[in-house]
Amino acid sequence: MGFSLWTLLEASLLCLNAICILNEDRVLAKYGWSTVNREFEDSPSTKTQILALMKSIRTVVKYPLIIFNLLIILVKSLTG
Fold this sequence. Notes:
Layout lengths: L4 H17 L24 H34 L1
Helix pairs in contact: 1-2
């Protein structure tokens, strides 16, 4: 099993899935990674920027991700 463009696509899809299903209240708040009272800072920290990126990924990629997941499942089931 070598490294190819297909495995890179699958890995990025898995990472996007992980970001989209990650619950801020249950998982991130335990470690201090909650977005409460952090969105309106004058100079946002790296942590705040990462949280904003995760939130925007959830907003933009939610519905196309369903289609990409279905396509990957279909291709994997047909190729074995």
